[in-house]
UniProtKB/TrEMBL annotation:
<dbReference type="GO" id="GO:0003700">
    <property type="term" value="F:DNA-binding transcription factor activity"/>
</dbReference>
<dbReference type="InterPro" id="IPR036390">
    <property type="entry name" value="WH_DNA-bd_sf"/>
</dbReference>
<keyword id="KW-0805">Transcription regulation</keyword>
<dbReference type="InterPro" id="IPR051011">
    <property type="entry name" value="Metal_resp_trans_reg"/>
</dbReference>
<keyword id="KW-0238">DNA-binding</keyword>
<feature type="domain" description="HTH arsR-type">
    <location>
        <begin position="245"/>
        <end position="316"/>
    </location>
</feature>
<dbReference type="InterPro" id="IPR011991">
    <property type="entry name" value="ArsR-like_HTH"/>
</dbReference>
<keyword id="KW-0804">Transcription</keyword>
<dbReference type="GO" id="GO:0003677">
    <property type="term" value="F:DNA binding"/>
</dbReference>
<protein>
    <recommendedName>
        <fullName>HTH arsR-type domain-containing protein</fullName>
    </recommendedName>
</protein>
<dbReference type="InterPro" id="IPR036388">
    <property type="entry name" value="WH-like_DNA-bd_sf"/>
</dbReference>
<dbReference type="InterPro" id="IPR001845">
    <property type="entry name" value="HTH_ArsR_DNA-bd_dom"/>
</dbReference>
Length: 318
């Protein structure tokens, strides 16, 4: 479980990143691809990513020999160039201490030793590797990431306006709760307590990391919580779309309509109204889709809410 401890000053300084951060999204993408997060639905995407990475991106693997990269890579630049400038401005002492933490007693590659010594050639190697990985993996879908970020930004802004900051925070993860001044996020590994101590918190959605929150705490900067958002599958560019007639022949027209409506949560009653069917018929369609893993159903008191899963999104298309 991740436990984030707030002060009154931290609550005042909670903010939502207004734009996606290319380097953060790139790190989330590579982490998901390498660590096999996301289960079998991510397998085709993961295979494409790992096959497409050019040799110029290979040095990035040297930065995570044990799975946890150095903290100085976690920056919020609006562009790749801005992000790299922020990384390059890291104090030499922090660069050295983080590389020593990452490598410990292991022998480090030559270019990592150069980075440790502040060598300009090593920094250029890192810059080329990040740029090559971005151009291959993220550039083709960056417009989609920007659209998804705007939608998530709007959703969070409306939640804050209507229900307050506490509801916004706990709504970012099922089962999370705000208990007095501690935000608890269950299921996050390893078990970790982080005290913000007045530095504030930036909320940054990621659309390539489905496995839980990534919290970066860098001296002298606000803490950054990168959390999973979006439809549950990585954005794709030009994914083949199955014609509606083909899907309707398999699922049935009404059931396909239900699946597409459930990109947003619907109660049984609202789903029935949208489909122009009875509540019993809407419930039957939702049950059939749920049994196939395409829909989830949650009950709160007497209210039942249905929503599409990542598998349902994959089948239904955009």
């Amino acid at each position: 479980m991740l436990r984030i401890h707030f002060t009154a000053q931290d609550f005042v300084q909670i903010r939502f990143a207004p734009r996606p951060a290319p380097l953060q999204e790139l790190h989330a993408t590579l982490r998901t691809a390498v660590n096999r997060h996301g289960g079998p639905l991510f397998a085709p995407w993961r295979g494409r990513v790992l096959r497409s990475l050019p040799a110029a991106a290979n040095p990035l693997a040297d930065l995570v020999p044990a799975g946890r990269p150095p903290s100085f890579l976690d920056v919020l630049g609006d562009t790749m160039a801005d992000g790299f400038e922020q990384i390059r401005a890291t104090s030499p002492g922090l660069v050295r201490s983080e590389l020593e933490r990452v490598y410990g007693a292991m022998p480090a590659p030559l270019w990592i030793r150069g980075l440790h010594a502040g060598d300009d050639t090593a920094w250029r190697t890192l810059h080329r590797a990040q740029q090559a990985a971005y151009e291959t993996v993220l550039a083709p879908v960056w417009c989609v990431v920007q659209d998804l970020h705007r939608a998530e930004f709007t959703r969070c802004a409306l939640t804050v306006a209507e229900h307050g900051v506490a509801a916004t925070l706990t709504g970012l993860a099922p089962g999370s709760r705000l208990h007095e001044d501690v935000w608890e996020w269950p299921g996050a590994a390893p078990d970790r307590d982080v005290c913000l101590d007045g530095r504030g918190l930036v909320l940054l959605p990621t659309f390539h990391h489905p496995a839980g929150p990534l919290l970066q705490v860098t001296p002298g900067h606000p803490a950054v919580l990168t959390y999973p958002a979006g439809p549950g599958l990585p954005p794709t560019a030009g994914r083949p779309v199955v014609p509606a007639e083909t899907l309707a022949a398999v699922l049935g027209r009404t059931r396909l309509d239900a699946l597409r409506l459930l990109t947003e949560p619907h109660t049984t009653t609202s789903l029935a109204h949208a489909l122009h069917v009875s509540n019993a018929t809407a419930s039957s369609h939702a049950a059939a889709l749920r049994s196939a893993g395409m829909v989830t159903t949650t009950r709160t008191g007497r209210s039942v809410t249905h929503q599409r899963t990542a598998l349902g999104t994959l089948i239904a298309g955009a």
